[in-house]
Amino acid sequence: MIRVLLEKGYALPYKVLDALVFHFLRIFKTEKELPVLFHQSLLTFCQKYKDDITQEQREALLDVNNGSRGHHAMGPEIKKELLAGKSRVDPDQKMDIE
Description:
Blueprint (H helix, E strand, L loop, with lengths): L1 H6 L6 H17 L5 H14 L5 H12 L8 H10 L14
Helix pairs in contact: 2-4, 3-5, 4-5
């Protein structure tokens, strides 16, 4: 279900994107054997929303993807997408304008 919604490419609020990142991280930490559908959903998320996540979220996803739990075929694609993305500017973060 998540993959189908992500493939639509809707402009999701940052709160939803943050919740999705935490969902992926939580599943990586709890499940023993991850199904291919999980990796497909993560790849779709990275392809569509790689520019809308923070640097910390990007690093956390890279860490769990690089481990022994990453998928042998989709893991490199997920890494490529994450490294190609630009980090979002947190709206709560103040920018110094001089």
